[in-house]
Predict the structure.
Amino acid sequence: MILTENSIKSFATPEEEAEKVQVEEGTPVEPAIVEQPHSEGTASDEKVKEPLITESAGQEEESDAFVTDQSGHKKTLQNIGKVTLLESWFDAKSGSEIRKLELTIGSESKIVWHFLFPRWADYSTPKGGDRDALLELIKLSASKSGPDNPSMIHCGAGVGRTRVFIALDYLLQELESGQLLQLADPETDPVFETVNLMREQRMFMVYNEMQFKFIY
């Protein structure tokens, strides 16, 4: 799973491959952009403006690399600008590879945080200690994002691992704020309602039964 804070929706992909997740009106939750991974041919497509990227396992086979692990490495995006790797390290607590990048477009620069969670295979769920690591990643990602710098999140297709991450992020925020304890109808299943709302926006959100149960 890849999470990018102060994200680059311009590593991004064409408009149809990226979308903003909607929640019920009035819900106090940070915005997020979900998408499919970019390829070498789409790495320069417009919009790299927000500050956070979160990514799930094994993207090397499916997408063009964001940047190498060599500090100071610069990558030029055609017609866009330049991305420079400032720092990179592995955070054991969140099980994530973390990169601090600087995106420069013309005379403007901003910091982009890139998180790669490599221990989550496609169509599956994290196991054992990786579950705790994922929760730590969700907290870490939330600490870097906000209304003006939404997270950009993707896995392979942007419907399985990505949506599990978003559902957990949203539901944990609801739990911490006490909203899950104030349901108007006690028969309401907040997990089902959250996943169903995402599926109304795009088919196959939370791809299979295993991932659905994992959210519970």
Remarks:
- The domain at 2-156 is CATH 3.90.190.10 (Protein-Tyrosine Phosphatase; Chain A).
